[in-house]
Design a protein that fits this description.
Elements: H1 3-8, H2 18-27, E1 29-33, E2 38-40, E3 48-54, E4 57-62, E5 68-74, E6 79-80, H3 82-87, E7 94-97, E8 101-107, H4 108-117, H5 119-145, H6 148-163, E9 167-169, H7 174-181, H8 185-197, E10 201-204, E11 208-211, H9 214-221
Length: 225
């Protein structure tokens, strides 16, 4: 595997020049996880961060009673745990592999030493992370302040913008999506079926959704439908 080429395809690193990609590649460590394996645990010392190459990683919180709340599911190309590394804090949540996962692991000490010697590198990376943070903050606001159908419509529009295709992939099982939206799988299925009856979407298989009427979804997301 040419690690430098892999890094160049990842949004977080894609703006870096070739020599800096080679320096990053020199400290990257391939790590693989089997399905349901723990990537890291909440409160654990953040000894580095991961960038997915294949498979999906679920980030979630657990209550003392054992109830889990999925925060996000990251696919290939997305960093996981980088905020804890930059903040010099423990991992703020748990992460597990949803399927067989291949990643590149960047050890905290070596990564921070590298960016201290190359401050331009961290500026480029922080610009990318800042855009991602603004995007997620808007999504979190949508998901926290709206009712379930409004949250679902907002999430579908979020995926449509990011994937830029007519038929989107939900990127996770309906069970996990229900957890992200703060509802049950049954309620999620009910509102998906309603959107389909109203002609806004067409369901295809377990994870594919064809978006037909974006204006309808925008009205629902805004609470006007």
């Amino acid at each position: 595997m040419d690690v430098s080429k892999e890094l160049a395809r990842i949004a977080l690193f894609s703006a870096l020049p070739a020599d800096e990609l080679r320096k990053l590649a020199a400290i990257a460590m391939p790590r693989e996880f089997s399905r349901r394996a723990s990537v890291f645990s909440e409160g654990e010392a953040a000894d580095g961060f991961y960038v997915g190459l294949s498979g999906q990683i679920r980030v979630f919180k657990s209550s003392p009673e054992g109830k889990e709340q999925t925060l996000h599911i990251f696919g290939p190309g997305h960093p996981v745990g980088e905020a804890a590394v930059f903040a010099n804090e423990p991992y703020p949540a748990n992460a597990e592999a949803l399927d067989a996962v291949k990643t590149l692991f960047f050890p905290k000490d070596r990564f921070l030493a590298l960016v201290r010697r190359n401050p331009e590198m961290v500026l480029v990376m922080l610009a990318t992370l800042s855009k991602r943070l603004v995007h997620f903050a808007r999504l979190v606001e949508d998901l926290a302040l709206k009712e379930i159908p409004h949250r679902l419509a907002a999430y579908l529009l979020h995926l449509a913008k990011r994937q830029n295709v007519e038929t989107i992939d939900l990127e996770m099982s309906k069970r996990h999506l229900a957890s992200v939206l703060g509802t049950t799988p049954e309620t999620l299925s009910r509102f998906l079926a309603k959107f389909a009856r109203d002609g806004a979407i067409a369901l295809s298989g377990t994870r594919k959704v064809r978006l037909i009427d974006l204006k309808y979804l925008a009205r629902v997301s805004a609470g006007k439908e």
